[in-house]
Amino acid sequence: MRKCIIGGENGLEQKVDQNFLTAMKKYVNCYENEGNTCKADILQHFIAHLRVYQRHLEKNHAEYGKVVEKIPLPP
């Protein structure tokens, strides 16, 4: 988990990602990859929540997604 958190923070700070949705997808993918080697119930539960959140962002591009795309990365 530490790897994913640090990677996500670094990506935002260094402005590697174009917007929040792109950053979120990378964050979820990191956790999914880590989840392949760790079968802890709490991690699997967290990954399931991240997947739902990602689907919400992608599905609701019409409203919420447009707002999320406009959120600038931190300066």
What do you see in this structure?
By secondary structure, the protein is an all-alpha fold. It has one domain (2-70). Helices cover 76% and strands 0% of the residues. It has 4 helices and no strands. The protein has helices at 2-13, 20-35, 41-59, 61-70. α2 (20-35) packs antiparallel against α3. The longest helix is centred in the middle third of the chain and has 19 residues, at 41-59. It is flat and about 35 Å long. The mean pLDDT is 77.
Topology:
Elements: H1 2-13, H2 20-35, H3 41-59, H4 61-70
Helix pairs in contact: 1-2, 2-3, 3-4
Brief rundown of the structure:
It contains four helices and no strands.
Described by the principal axes of the CA atoms, the overall outline is flat
The biggest beta sheet reads: none
Helix/strand-derived category reads: mainly alpha
User: What is the C-alpha radius of gyration, as a whole number of Å?
Assistant: 13 Å
Figure out the total of helices: 4
Binned, the helix content reads over 70%
State the low-pLDDT regions, or none.
none
The proportion of residues in beta strands is under 5%
User: What is the H-and-E element order?
Assistant: HHHH
**What is the number of domains?**
1
* Total count of strands: 0
Oligomer: single chain
Mean of pLDDT: 77
Distance between the termini: 25 Å
